[in-house]
Fold this sequence. Notes:
By secondary structure, the chain is α/β, with parallel strands linked by helices.
Amino acid sequence: MRHIAIIGSGPxxxxxxxxxxxxxxxxxxVDIFDMLPVPYGLIRTGVAPDHQSIKGVAxxxxxxxxxxNVRFVGNVMVGKDVTVExxxxxxxxxxxxxxxxxxxxxxxxxxNLPNVYGSAAFVGWYNGHPMxxxxxxxxxxDTAVVIGMGNVALDVTRILSKxxxxxxxxxxxxxxxxxxxxxxxRRIVILGRRGPHQIMMTPKELxxxxxxxxxxxxxxxxxxxxxxxxxxxEPGLRKSVNxxxxxxxxxxxxYGDVPIEIEFDFYASPKAILGDGKVxxxxxxxxxxxxxxxxxTGETYVIPAGLVVCCIxxxxxxxxxxxxxxxxxxxxxxxxxxxxxxxxxxxxRRGPSGTIGTNRPDGFSVIEKIAEDIGAGAGKQGRPGFxxxxxxxxxxxxxxxxxxxxxxxxxxxxxxxxxxxxFVRVEEMIAARGS
Length: 435
Ligand code: NAP
């Protein structure tokens, strides 16, 4: 028998569990740990609440979770309630599938001013992550600056633009809907330090900006390269640039008809967040792109703004006792192996890029590595060993069966047309599982 502990119950965690089942069938026991009492990580608290079809993949993880040899061990924080070293003593392999939940820092003056948020915090707020439920952003200003030109910047921009009606069918949490209702935003500026050919936004997500009821995207035609140059782009990026071209062709008169303008500001590198007690603007330097890199021109300007959301990427959390690559913001590893017996997968392995599905081959390849290393298993204790330790420490472990009760409660309290109203505090989640 092999015993595997997976830390993190997001896509990377569940795909790895699925791969372990395929590899060993009944000859493996997998425990999936999560610091929250609820599973699915990024699917629950990262994927945008109005992208329910993407969240549907959780049904696949549930099928894995419900099998006899996979167990959810919720409400246990590895590194605090139990150490990685202890888990290594109990399991043949420990796999860190902890994602990249922290914001990369901009390292700019003013970054810590009130109403300046990283996307992990801002996305966590509208998705009901307990760590960010109290964020309470102030949307009373007329301009927001969103820094970065990736899909997270698009998510944040779209959520800031939508009306309550447009959130029908989504699982955006009530506290966020209430604050968004108070929004006085008229302008959202998306800052990209490079040009239209260097955006990280994918076509489907970019195209959604054309279908917002009270907002319209604006691109300055002068920022667009010659059409002929698009031929050199890979097909996905070419489609995204086509969307930018269609935004640039929107007649000026249209902007009078919609309350919010979403302005793409290319060749614009943030230099400082301005304000005194609260953010009042962003100082930006014009750039040119040389050999693919943004190079400052020395020309600066200020965008007055009452809200700034930095969507420039994420990094993995450190875990005591595990080596960490500070520069890359993830665990150092050789194709998923940190050390024999200790592995990483998904964003904790590769850094924060790729789609949910990219984690599947990742999970399968790390299980291949583990299979090479552990053979038939070393007779470790696995589950019973952890259960004894949890009992001795008085840990309040939340099981998958408990989660199904929490889920039923969340579904029962959903507003009309919504799939669920999430609990946003750990105590509420624990209380909802009943006795
Ligand atoms: P991302 O795709 O890496 O985009 C980050 C953006 O931030 C880039 O435009 C980057 O510009 C910019 N940036 C980085 N450092 C900067 C700095 N110091 N100053 C100014 N700009 C800076 O990251 P992401 O948007 O966080 O997305 C993470 C992953 O999740 C991606 O793979 C994304 O596709 C995926 N995702 C997918 C969806 C979806 O499919 N619906 C939704 C959300 C996220 P440079 O290119 O110049 O560095």
